[in-house]
Amino acid sequence: MFGIGGGELIFIMFVVLLLFGSDKIPEIARTMGKAMAQLKNATNDIKHEIQKGAEENGLDAKSLSEMTGGINTQIDKIKEDVLGDGVVQATKIKEDIEDITGPVKRSR
């Protein structure tokens, strides 16, 4: 968690206990929990507002996935065309070299 090991975490908890005392720690933890919940709610609200704005402008998840799916299909087709030709050409060149020189063997 955040690159903090077990020993370091225990040391931090010990320092917090010394600074604030055992009676204040539950109150601090409760306050931090409430703050984290508020932060989570705020980020969810922002996310929903962005999605709502996108849907109002005609950009819903389905249309976006259709667009990206079409783009990915075209990219895959181009990859197959380029790699397919390259593999065929590489195989032909390899065969030509072997025909000229024979199999290459290591000599010790």
UniProtKB/TrEMBL annotation:
The keyword Transcription regulation does not apply. The chain crosses the membrane at residues 6-22. It is found in: Membrane. It is a single-pass membrane protein. Pfam families: TatA_B_E. Keywords: Membrane, Protein transport, Translocation, Transmembrane, Transmembrane helix, Transport. Its main location: membrane. InterPro entries: TatA/B/E. PANTHER family: SEC-INDEPENDENT PROTEIN TRANSLOCASE PROTEIN TATA (PTHR42982). This is Sec-independent protein translocase. It comes from Flavobacterium palustre.
